[in-house]
Amino acid sequence: MSSSRRFNRRNFLRGIGTAGVALPFLESLPERSAWAQSQNPVFAFFICTSCGVVQRWGNEPEKFWPSSVGPLSTQNMQAATDRATSILADYADRLLIVRGVRYPYPGTGCGHALGLVQCLTASRPTGDAQNATSTGVSADTVIAEGVNPPGVEPLTLYSGLKGGYIDEKLSFSAAGRVRAAEGNPYNVYQRLAGLLQPGSGEPTGTAD
Fold this sequence. Notes:
By secondary structure, the protein is mainly α. The protein has helices at about 10-15, 20-25, 75-80, 110-120, 140-145, 185-190; strands at about 125, 135, 170-175, 175-180. The protein has a two-stranded antiparallel sheet with strand order 1-2. A two-stranded antiparallel ribbon has the order 3-4.
């Protein structure tokens, strides 16, 4: 998505709940901030949770989707207090919540891994169980190649411990090549604030 106005770092940080103490610091870095590179930045966010959302399944009640289909409004979202999406009621006029999306290729073995490798690639998976991988590139890579300077890859954050039954299987730089995600939120903050060199991850040399 894109904005017709200059991106406001203060509003962005408030929106994602970042501590207010960071606001003066970020605004002191206009020449290095990731948001200061363009008057009309183009960006996309993809958020994936490991086990989906709490929705109706068997005898389990619906706890995620809005209570009715159709246009969203602050009023009807606030009224659905038993749904997780009600917390987004203040942004109803800017939301489009899509359900009914299905992965294009069935798999065998572990549906979690096979689903993950299709999530941003829409490509046929190969392998089975936790060893599944993608046969195509992921959407974040395509977007980054289209809008970023050469060599600047998309930013991937992995929240939680790695090394489990299923590890990273979301972002692919090429078929079968999963992109290693950053597991440290502080390093992500440094990149967004312009304290690390894009691509290399090395300090800019201008920040203590």
